[in-house]
Sequence to fold (279 residues):
Amino acid sequence: MQRASNSQYGAGSRSAPSFRLPEGAGARSIPSFGHPEGAGARSAPSFGHPDQFILSPGDTLSKNRYRIINRIILPETQKKQGAAWSAIDTQATRRRVVIREILVPEHMARAIPKDRIVQRVVQRMTALGQNTGFPSVIDFFDEKQSYFMVLLYPEGETLDTILKRQGGALPEPLVAEYGYQLCRLLSLLADQHPPIIHGSISPQTIIISNDRQSASLIHLPLFPPESPSISSGKGASGYYAPEQIRGEAEMSSDLYGLAATLHHAVTGYDPHMRLTFFH
Fold:
């Protein structure tokens, strides 16, 4: 496997393309409806943020290019950053893509024009995507007064799916190799300016390639992650560091999440069964 280089955007990787916002983008507020072309507009969803889009299977975006398959549940720490969907790219041999809405936090939009914030997000995610192990950005567009970024996720299955099917531990040398690869990816995130805290490292945000040789990190946050809640007992609660639960996430919080994930993979012990803090 080609290793990701350790620099701001990965030295030696090809330069990131420059996306330009559509004329007039950013001058409008994000609507509370989400059906394409305005047909059948529906009330705002109850999940995440009141201004997130609602899209149903079969709906289309970007002049019918992307056909929605289903909604993707993003990590709890990204619930106010926009929704995400799995979709088919009808203009590229019907490949599967992930569409992410970019929902700019209001406190950020008050200080910097929204279009500039979105431009930075897209360029940063595009540059990171030049490195093996991260989703790659293939398109960006403005529609219905909102912004959307289209990504290709690495092929394979989530580590969560593999562990559930396996019903036990994975071979230690294999888990160690995954850990090495993921540490390199976290190092890339830490080298950003400002550094990126993923905030939701768990088996659900790690993709293992079909040949079982490579580990990739998905669901990168568009903005600083929010503080998680462990009250629901769902999601990645067993993988959050104590300081993250207190709302004091640091770069080391991602290392904690990775350590808890690797411990699960090598022992078969699911931290959801009993909330345990590793010290």
Summary: The longest helix spans residues 172-190. The domain at 36-152 is CATH 3.30.200.20 (Phosphorylase Kinase; domain 1).
